[in-house]
C-alpha cells in the first residue's frame, strides 16, 4: 500500500530533472521489479484534499503577491505542492517548461477547473494509475481485511495527533489492512529469507507510538520505509533489469542514498549476527534471515540511512558536480 505522503512527494517532483525525481523513480523501479503497488481510496482522498488545500491557500494568500516571491520566502510555504510550484516558477532554467500559473501546474495532474468537484477523484486516480502502474482498491476492499472494532479503537487513539478524525481513520485502516492482507495471502504460513510480503510504504512515524500493542500482537511491524525499498533495489539481484532500465537516472540516486552508512557499532552487531547464523542449519538460518529482513524493512530508527552533516555535504557536492557537467538545471 503506497502512502499518501509518497504520492504527494512524487507529484511534487514533476518539474525536477528526471535524475532528481527520487520518489518517482523509486516507485517506477519498484513496479518494474515486480512489486504490486496499491493506491487505496483513503490515500486518493488525501492526495486530492492536499491539492484542494493548496488551491485554497494559493487563492487566499499567494496569488495576489506571487510576483514578489523569492526562493527564501517560497521555501517557507507549508504545503509541499505549493512549494514545488513556486520553485518551478522561480527556476529560469526550465524555460518553456515553466508552468505559466497555478492552474497550469494543477492541470499536470488533473483539471484545475474541476478540482473541487467529484470529477477530481477519477482524474487523479487515472493519472496515478497510468503514471506509476498502481493497482486500485476501495475503502470497502480494505474494510473486508480488518476488524472494524479494532479500526474504531485505533482511530480514537490517533485522533489527538491527526488534523481530522478522517485522517486518523485512514491511518488506522491502512495499518490494520496490512495485517489482514498478510493473513489472507497466507504469508503467516510461508517462511522465506525476504520476510513479509505486504507492507505500508510510508515515512509516517507518529502512528507507531499508538500501535505498539498491535505490533506486539502480530509479532511484526507494518511500515516499510522508502529508504529501505530504494536500497533494496540498488543491491538485489532480482532488481537487475530495473537498474538497467533506469540506468540514466540511477547513478545520482545511488550516490545520494548510499552515502548513508551504518554506524560502526551497529555494523559490528549485524556482522556478529551473521557469524552466528553460519552455525545454523538451513531451516534455522532461513528463519533468522526473515527476522533480519523484517527488522530492516520496518526499522523506525532508520540507522542504516542516517545522514550526517558530512554525508549531506558530499551529496550536495555530487549533485553540483553532475549539474556542472550537464548544465541542464539549477541545483534542486
Kindly describe this structure.
Helix content is 58%, strand content 3%. By secondary structure, it is mainly α. The chain has a two-stranded parallel sheet with strand order 1-2. Helix 1 crosses helix 3. The longest helix has 22 residues. The chain is globular and about 70 Å long.
Number of helices: 17
The largest sheet is: 2 strands, parallel
Task: Trace the largest sheet across and list its strands.
Answer: 1-2
Radius of gyration: 21 Å
The helix-strand sequence is HHEHHHHHEHHHEHEHHHHHH
Shape: globular
Classify the beta-strand content into a percent band.
under 5%
What is the strand tally?
4
- By secondary-structure content and strand pairing, the structural class works out as mainly alpha
* Helical content class: 55-70%
- pLDDT averaged residue by residue: 81
> Low-confidence segments, ≥5 residues, pLDDT <50?
254-261, 304-332
Through-space gap between termini: 28 Å
Task: Output the keywords.
two-stranded parallel ribbon; 17 helices; single chain; 332 residues; 3% strand
Helix-strand blueprint:
Layout: H1 4-12, H2 22-33, E1 38-40, H3 41-62, H4 71-74, H5 80-90, H6 102-106, H7 119-132, E2 135-137, H8 139-143, H9 148-158, H10 165-184, E3 200-201, H11 212-218, E4 223-224, H12 226-235, H13 240-245, H14 250-257, H15 264-277, H16 282-297, H17 309-326
Parallel strand pairs: 1-2, 3-4
Helix pairs in contact: 1-2, 1-3, 1-5, 2-12, 3-7, 9-10, 14-17
Amino acid at each position: 500500500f503506497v502512502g499518501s505522503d509518497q504520492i504527494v512527494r512524487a507529484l511534487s517532483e514533476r518539474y525536477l530533472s528526471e535524475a532528481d525525481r527520487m520518489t518517482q523513480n523509486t516507485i517506477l523501479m519498484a513496479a518494474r521489479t515486480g512489486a504490486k503497488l496499491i493506491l487505496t481510496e483513503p490515500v486518493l482522498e488525501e492526495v486530492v484534499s492536499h491539492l484542494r488545500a493548496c488551491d485554497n491557500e494559493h487563492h487566499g494568500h499567494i496569488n495576489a503577491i506571487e510576483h514578489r516571491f523569492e526562493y527564501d520566502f517560497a521555501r517557507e510555504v507549508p504545503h509541499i505542492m505549493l512549494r514545488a510550484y513556486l520553485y518551478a516558477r522561480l527556476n529560469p532554467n526550465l524555460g518553456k517548461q515553466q508552468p505559466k500559473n497555478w492552474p497550469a501546474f494543477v492541470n499536470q495532474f488533473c483539471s484545475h477547473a474541476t478540482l473541487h468537484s467529484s470529477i477530481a477523484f477519477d482524474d487523479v486516480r487515472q493519472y496515478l494509475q497510468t503514471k506509476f502502474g498502481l493497482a486500485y482498491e476501495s475503502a470497502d476492499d480494505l474494510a473486508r481485511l480488518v476488524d472494524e472494532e479494532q479500526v474504531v479503537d485505533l482511530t480514537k487513539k490517533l485522533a489527538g495527533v491527526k488534523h481530522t478524525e478522517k485522517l486518523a481513520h485512514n491511518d488506522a485502516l491502512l495499518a490494520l489492512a496490512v495485517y489482514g492482507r498478510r493473513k489472507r495471502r497466507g504469508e503467516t504460513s510461508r517462511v522465506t529469507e525476504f520476510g513479509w510480503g505486504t507492507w505500508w510504504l510510508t515515512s509516517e512515524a507518529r502512528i507507531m507510538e499508538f500501535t505498539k500493542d498491535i505490533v506486539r500482537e502480530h509479532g511484526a511491524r507494518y511500515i516499510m520505509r522508502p529508504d529501505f525499498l530504494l536500497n533494496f533495489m540498488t543491491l538485489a539481484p532480482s532488481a537487475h533489469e530495473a537498474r538497467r532500465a533506469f540506468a540514466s537516472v540511477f547513478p545520482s540516486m545511488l550516490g545520494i542514498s548510499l552515502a548513508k552508512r551504518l554506524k560502526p557499532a551497529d555494523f559490528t552487531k549485524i556482522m556478529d549476527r551473521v557469524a552466528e547464523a553460519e552455525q545454523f542449519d538451513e531451516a534455522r538460518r532461513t528463519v533468522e534471515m526473515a527476522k533480519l529482513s523484517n527488522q530492516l524493512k520496518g526499522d523506525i530508527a532508520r540507522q542504516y540511512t542516517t545522514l550526517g552533516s558530512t554525508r549531506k555535504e558530499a551529496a550536495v557536492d555530487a549533485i553540483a558536480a553532475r549539474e556542472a557537467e550537464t548544465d541542464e538545471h539549477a541545483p534542486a
